[in-house]
Model the fold of this input.
Amino acid sequence: MMEEDAICAATTNIRDEGIDLTQISLRPISLDDVDDVMAWTTDEKVARYCTWEPYTSKEEGINFIQNIASKSLWFRAICLNDRVIGCIDLSSCEGQGRNRHKSAELGYALGTRYWGKGIATHVVKQVVKAAFTEFPHLERLQALVFLENVASQRVLHKAGFQREGVFRKYEFIKGKSRDMVCYSFLSDDCPT
Ligand SMILES: CC(C)(COP(=O)(O)OP(=O)(O)OC[C@H]1O[C@@H](n2cnc3c(N)ncnc32)[C@H](O)[C@@H]1OP(=O)(O)O)[C@@H](O)C(=O)NCCC(=O)NCCS
Done:
């Protein structure tokens, strides 16, 4: 069976049907997941609004799996029936400047065949809760989103993030200065 067919079998007509969000789980990633990781990291549509270019070799997938945990404050694979369909991470803002150790930045990506089913919103809500529990020193989660990335802005809005504004030509990514929308969720925003 081809790899793509195997994912299809594991996720049964995902393109046409809604999805039972209880089948979505978050877990650490391992080298056994490399083929599933390649399915979405090689996709230009997934990479378009990310800082990375689509992968062109399996070595890049292996390198990602081997190094991502040490680069992130917190990283999880997003799984459907235990198959890796995306990822979500938090990175500390400490390295971005002085006095930012109480902030962390959220990032996520999902394979295109799973878009529009509420998966990212479901997972972001879980991660917000986990972040302030596992890292009690954190007071602020933020996400910087390409102005053109409407789907991601919608996810953050639905997950309770506040839109703070647009940082104009804020980051030079893929050969262009990009307008980035800044969203935040504060520990004080959590319902008690
Ligand atoms: C952003 C991303 C994670 C969203 O995942 P998802 O599981 O499809 O998100 P959800 O289904 O929870 O919500 C998406 C929302 O955006 C809406 N949406 C999607 N494309 C849209 C568009 N072009 N215009 C307006 N709304 C759009 C959907 O309708 C949905 O809103 P609704 O529930 O009110 O209908 C996914 O598109 C992705 O991986 N993109 C590539 C990587 C990326 O951009 N990562 C984020 C970097 S900050």
